[in-house]
Amino acid sequence: MTTSISRAAGGRVESPSGALMTVDGQALLCFGGSSYLGLGRIPDLLDAGCAALRQFGASTHLARHYGFSAGANQEAEAEARRFFDVDDAMYFGTGYLFGLIALAGLAPDCDAIYLDECAHYSLRDGANATGKPVHLFKHRDADDLVRHLERTLGPGERPLVATDGMFPTFGVIAPLQAYARAIASRGGWLVVDESHAFGTLGPLGRGAVEAAGLSFERVVAGGSTAKAFGAHGGLALGSTRTLASLWRTPVARGAVLGCSAGAAMTAQSLRHIRQHPEILARLRDNARALKDGLRELGLKLEDSDGPVATFVHGDAQEMQRIQAALFDRGIFIAYSTYVGAGPEGVLRCAAFADHTPQHIDRLLTTLRSLL
Description:
There is one protein chain. By secondary structure, this protein is of the alpha/beta class. The protein contains 14 helices and 13 strands. The strands form three sheets. A seven-stranded mixed β-sheet has the order 3-9-8-7-6-4-5, with helices on both faces. A three-stranded mixed β-sheet has the order 1-2-11. Helix 8 links the parallel strand 7 and strand 8. Helix 3 packs parallel to helix 11 and helix 12 packs parallel to helix 14. It starts with 5 loop residues before the first helix and ends with a helix.
């Protein structure tokens, strides 16, 4: 996400990510980014990463298509199957690969791809790489999706719909149930990028697919473990048969191994969240407090169950002024022109589980004086 503050763009981050950070030797109260569960400083995650490096080294050079499987990656996949209660899971080196892996793996089973017009860049890249026809439908508009299906699909042709579960800029949630109904009679597939929904949505923090009550029969979900989970890498979730197709894709064969520390930290993060459900409860309490406080300041926010609170206030220059003034007072929120933002940009805040009520009050009090 772009920011207007040159110091922040070039600042040296000297601490783990979370509510409190150190940048260029200075303490910073952070409401920017996506450290939703506040796990950056959790000792058992850091210890797991260090132990994996000592045992496995940074990575193995023997991939699955040679008949080998990295031990740390196997651990991450086993914990993912347990955490998400899914038949199979696939760990890879970075969440951005999810679109390239999932869409390539399902391409033989679809005839056209339908993308939310605000879908993440990784889904767009994945869709374009398949060579299939790609159609954009209006943001979170199931009726417009149906119109596109009726207009562009021939008899017996199968659609694939790809969308973010929770969109990163405004934190709004895709109507996944409506999409699933729209494609069910056509033998369609639904691909959901859960990068910002992992650890934030659903009763157990499993993401937007869980929140929508969908099964994985015709669904593949996945995304980054470097956001709420505080680790590094990516996951894909689905049936064993479906993930077998994903493993045969060029990206899966050539670029998925990642670093052993990222895989081990992913596994430990999933264990930690299962053992400490109070973390998710605290995130949701903080999200409500942050959003209620911003609305009391007269700011308009999208309705969402997620932790992202984004608003527009004046023009780009005014929002950059507010961001810079907050930064001068030791508080960071993002002035963002990321995917989904309008031409003037937005001010994006996010609640983290390690924010305290005092942190939220400090932001709201300071922001009140600047509006």
